[in-house]
Amino acid sequence: MTATSRRLALKAGAFALGACLPAWALANARVDGVLKLALIESMSGPFANTGEAVLRNIAWAVERVNQRGVVKLDLQRFDSKGQNEEALSALRAAIDAGARVILQGNSSATASVLIEAINKHNEREPDKRVLFLNYSAVEPSLTNERCSFWHFRFDAHANMRIAALMDVIREDKALKGVYLIGQDYSFGQAVLREAREQLARQRPDVKVLAQELHPVGRVKDFAPYAVKIKASGAQAVITGNWGNDLTLLVKAARDVGYEGMFYTFYGNALGAPAALGDAGVGKVIAVADWLPNVQTAESEAFYQSFRKRFPKPQDDYVHMRMQLMIEALAQALEQAGSVSDVVQIARKLEHADVTLFGQRGVMRAADHQFQQSLVVGMMERVGSPGVKFDVEGSGYGFRVIRQISAYKAEQPTTCKMVRP
User: Fold this and answer.
1) Are 326 and 62 in contact (CB under 8 A)?
2) How would you class 220 by CB atoms within 10 Å of its CB: exposed for 0-12, middle for 13-18, buried for 19 or more?
3) Beta bridge partners of 101
4) What per-residue confidence (pLDDT) applies to 116?
């Protein structure tokens, strides 16, 4: 096996979650065999921090499932280096190594090429079929006109996230003009397109003062973009940027003295709050499936369990949806009763219904788009009302300002699913 496919050594868990086990996981007999999972992400390059953050989340979820002793998952990691060709090479290596479930999410462009490759592979080699579980690639077409039986998305897609942000934007009466900026690939383009469409329908009084796309992961100095944003007079920026492309953007905006709002998909972590500092308080809004300051006892127990497992402040990037994804896979395996029948596992996964620490998610069989509640948060100083927990030791956290039910977050699909 190559260096990029080093097996992740899963440590025995140092946490007790017995009281929070899903009900379906308590009584079933053990499923024989080991299911190999392959995480394909950037473990080096400009987005290495995003890959490492995902690895922690998936590893923790796998540890928890393995500790129950009903199913056995074997997690391996492969470095895509942020390049589609490297991701395709990693896919081939993962399949050769026996992986039957592929995990990826950080880049809709990469997800797109993986889906195409998996579709072709599964047709050519039915005895070595694989499933693709996607936790972050949110370009809408992946579960619409380009849907695949082999692909399951566990994150809310871009149109769902924009709709959640619009719940807040509708009430922002000071908003007269916005600046749209995003990464120049399918996802970034989809975010800007949907933002324009939803603004036109719900806030026709708000003008789009400028729309701009930039190369993904290659801009080192966002100052020229920040200067244009400030000069536009926009009261807010709407962006789907993630990773360093978001951190560097918000830092540049702070440095040039931009004082408007940021409506973001991912402004709640990976260095963005620390980069903004006090300049982001009351001005940065993020949408997510869950936030640490959701004020329920179950939510707090979930967050505290993650912090116990990963105590370093810089490792504080936990996603409920990634935990639900692995729980859904474990549920499908138990119901299928086999780790080798990929088609049967997929058919059970189509109807997954899982709850963990009070958060429920249901897979929609029509398009394989996971349905779950969403939250919108506002950046505030830790210790302020509603902000018990900060992000990455930054001293800033996100106060939940909107909770959106799964029913309200759901959107129609154009998927015409073809099943084997």
Assistant:
1) yes
2) exposed
3) 37, 131
4) 98
**In Å, what is the CA distance from 304 to each residue of 266, 297, 318?**
21, 10, 11
Structure tokens of 305? 């369990």
Positions of the chain with pLDDT lower than 50, given as ranges: 1-19, 24, 26-27
pLDDT score of 20: 53
**Is the Cβ–Cβ distance between 166 and 89 less than 8 Å?**
no
What pLDDT is recorded for position 19? 40
Note whether 256 and 279 are within 8 A (CB). Answer: no
pLDDT tens-digit map of 220-256: 999 999 999 999 999 999 999 988 899 899 889 989 9
- Between CA 165 and CA 151 the distance in angstroms is 26
Specify which residues 285 forms β-bridges with. Answer: 263, 378
CA distances from 229 to 180, 184, 278, 396 (A): 9, 17, 19, 24
Between strands 396-404 and 374-381, the pairing is: antiparallel
d(CA 406, CA 398): 21
For residue 3, the model assigns a pLDDT of 41
**CA nearest to 110, candidates 146, 86, 145, 78:** 86
Q: How is residue 59 written in tokens?
A: 């590893």
pLDDT digits (tens, 9 = 90+) for 273-307: 888 888 889 999 999 999 999 999 999 999 999 99
Cα distance between residue 116 and residue 396, in whole Å: 40
- What pLDDT was estimated at residue 47? 86
pLDDT at 269: 81
SS3 sequence of the chain: CCHHHCECCCCCCCCCCHHHCCHHHCCCCCCCCEEEEEEEECCCCCCHHHHHHHHHHHHHHHHHHHHHCCCEEEEEEEECCCCHHHHHHHHHHHHHCCCCEEEECCCHHHHHHHHHHHHHHHHHCHHHCCEEEECCCCCHHHHCCCCCCCEEECCCCHHHHHHHHHHHHCCCCCCCEEEEEEECCHHHHHHHHHHHHHHHHHCCCCEEEEEEEECCCCCCCCHHHHHHHHHHCCCEEEECCCCHHHHHHHHHHHHCCCCCEEEECCCCCCCHHHHHHHHHCCCEEEEECCCCCCCCHHHHHHHHHHHHHCCCHHHCCCCHHHHHHHHHHHHHHHHHCCCCCHHHHHHHHCCCEEEECCEEEEEECCCCEEEECEEEEEEEECCCCCCCCCCCCCCEEEEEEEEECHHHHCCCCCCCCCCC
